[in-house]
User: Which sequence fits this backbone?
């Protein structure tokens, strides 16, 4: 029998406890699924299902852990933890991906079509402004991983000329795939709409600084569901105030919840959403977790392993 610890808050236990045990049983894996207030010797835990708000910061007592399975796609809070020696797996979940595609398409279309301009009028002025077609609006996504690629494919299928940028070279049908510093310059120069879906690592922190924001075409729209520190906040405010960037829709922030006195709240060129672009959905994520435990138990390579050196 294996022992699986759900390390998080009460809500994680409520959402994952029973479904995970049922799915493991269905997969023929005899398991005990426990939470942190159920006393068990740490060295007897085989797998840790880890929520980013978990209080567990010292993994060293879990000497028998075969993997730590993160409940989020982003691993920046755990990847640098030196006490973690077991393999770290990030979340790839069809529900999480589907939610991100819907959110990005909605916010891209909001700006592309000028929906605010058309639905918010109260002055009885019949001012028709027919929006361009998607094919006339070059769009770039920084990050062509699980989420970036799915968003790129969805927006490309609507007709947007989509470019994507990643660390390693990619080939995504219908998407102009770029990489490297030269690729980044090209990706930014064409981006009337820019979506950030990069992980937060030492190499991506403040990637969008004033120099790179200046490469965007005048009037560009920035949409960030990636991580707050991908952007230099002051540089963004300056680019908005100068009119170089027309609007920024931000879902993620350096500090969350975004402090009440933060200038982003009141800025007319910024839309704040409270880190809701997407979320892991227990009904689809449980299958992914069980598949990784099944692999761990049968000696097969784990899926979605984090490269601790790269930080994602
Ligand atoms: P992923 O599959 O690991 O993809 C990451 C992408 O970023 C890959 O294409 C990777 O390039 C690229 N990348 C990483 N470092 C780079 C660098 N230095 N230069 C250029 N490209 C780089 O991650 P994912 O599942 O798509 O998730 C992406 C991020 O979305 C997460 O880390 C998280 O921060 C964020 N997220 C936000 C929400 C939300 O609700 N707001 C929800 C889920 C996730 P390679 O392909 O070459 O490796
Ligand atoms: C959410 O932000 C995630 O990283 O899954």
Assistant:
């Amino acid at each position: 029998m294996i022992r699986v610890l759900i390390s998080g808050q009460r809500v994680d236990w409520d959402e994952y406890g029973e479904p995970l045990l049922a799915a493991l049983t269905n997969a023929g894996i005899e398991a005990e699924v426990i939470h942190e207030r159920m006393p068990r010797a740490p060295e007897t835990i085989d797998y840790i299902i880890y929520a980013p708000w978990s209080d567990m910061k010292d993994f060293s007592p879990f000497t028998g852990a075969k993997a730590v399975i993160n409940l989020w796609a982003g691993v920046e809070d755990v990847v640098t933890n030196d006490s973690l020696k077991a393999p770290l797996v990030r979340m790839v979940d069809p529900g999480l991906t589907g939610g991100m595609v819907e959110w990005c398409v909605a916010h891209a279309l909001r700006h592309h079509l000028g929906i605010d301009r058309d639905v918010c009028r109260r002055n009885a002025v019949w001012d028709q402004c027919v929006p361009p077609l998607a094919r006339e609006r070059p769009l770039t996504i920084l990050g062509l991983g699980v989420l970036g690629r799915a968003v790129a494919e969805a927006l490309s299928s609507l007709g947007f000329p989509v470019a994507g940028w990643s660390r390693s070279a990619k080939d995504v049908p219908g998407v102009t795939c770029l990489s490297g510093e030269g690729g980044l310059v090209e990706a930014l120069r064409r981006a009337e709409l820019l979506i950030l879906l990069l992980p937060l690592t030492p190499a991506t922190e403040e990637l969008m600084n004033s120099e790179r924001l200046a490469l965007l075409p005048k009037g560009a729209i920035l949409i960030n569901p990636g991580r707050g520190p991908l952007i230099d906040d002051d540089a963004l405010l300056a680019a908005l105030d100068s009119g170089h960037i027309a609007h920024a829709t931000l879902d993620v922030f350096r500090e969350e919840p975004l402090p009440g006195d933060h200038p982003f709240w009141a800025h007319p060129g910024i839309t704040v959403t409270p880190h809701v672009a997407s979320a892991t959905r227990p009904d689809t994520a449980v299958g992914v977790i069980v598949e990784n435990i099944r692999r761990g138990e049968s000696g097969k390579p784990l899926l979605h392993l984090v490269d601790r050196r790269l930080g994602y």
Notes: The chain has a mean pLDDT of 97. The longest strand covers residues 2-7.
